[in-house]
Amino acid sequence: MERTTRWAKRCKDAHTTTDKQALFGIIQGGFYKDLRKKSAEDLINLDLPGYAIGGISVGESKEEFLEILNYTTPLMPNNKPRYLMGVGTPDYLIEAVMAGIDMCDCVLPTRIARNGTAMTSHGKVVVRNATYERDWTPLDPECDCYTCKNYTRAYIRHLIKANEILGVRLLSIHNLRFLTNLMEKVKIEIEHNNLGNFREEFYRKYGYIK
Question: What is the distance between the alpha carbons of residues 135 and 154, in angstroms, rounded to a whole number?
């Protein structure tokens, strides 16, 4: 944690492209709330353009993740961007927004695409599985992406099984658009003060809860 703060100070002193780049402070401290608080205070004193939460979503339970997320986010300035690092599953994205996070990033949508997996409105689809060999439907009938408009599950499965790079590209396009669509819906639900209900409905449809 202290090393992170020292690096942040050195970065700020060396940063000369402030008109082109926003230097964020990364709040660390593991799962120790006293360290998270100290890290946030030290970094906020540097008056950086934005702040991030690092060091969670690294294999801990969802309960532990949520505890640190909901503890740390209120410590961050509410007039500057709040960034949660390394989060890309639909449920974690929704929980991040509920906590007050503004932006996230993750390799997940393209990484699982390389393994032949798609995110859909009704949960994950492992398209490389034999069950989709003669499935002539799109990955997700509710999706408006290029992949879903032009290709079937069966054809994408064929591409993946044949190690054709097009299959990975098509799944990547879909997964990225799926998450973009999700966040567009989240924005609308925030505007209508309905995010809590949306979360429950989405979780039930996606298969997170029965």
Answer: 5
Q: Give a three-class secondary structure readout of the chain.
A: CHHHHHHHHHHHHHCCCCCCCCCEEEECCCCCHHHHHHHHHHHHCCCCCEEEECCCCCCCCHHHHHHHHHHHHHHCCCCCCEEEECCCCHHHHHHHHHHCCCEEECCHHHHHHHCCEEEECCEEEECCCHHHCCCCCCCCCCCCCHHHHHCCHHHHHHHHHCCCHHHHHHHHHHHHHHHHHHHHHHHHHHHCCCHHHHHHHHHHHHCCCC
In sequence order, what are the residues at sequence separation of 6 or more whose Cβ sits closer than 8 angstroms to the Cβ of residue 49? 18, 22, 23, 24, 80, 81
How many of the other CB atoms lie within 10 Å of CB of 23? 15
Place of tokens 């660390």: 28
pTM attached to this predicted model: 0.92
pLDDT in tens, the chain (210 residues): 999 999 999 999 999 888 889 999 999 999 999 999 999 999 999 999 999 999 998 889 999 999 999 999 999 999 999 999 999 999 999 999 999 999 999 999 999 999 999 999 999 999 999 999 999 999 999 999 999 999 999 999 999 999 999 999 999 999 999 999 999 999 999 999 999 999 999 999 998 876
Measured CA to CA, the distance from residue 157 to residue 43 in angstroms comes to 48
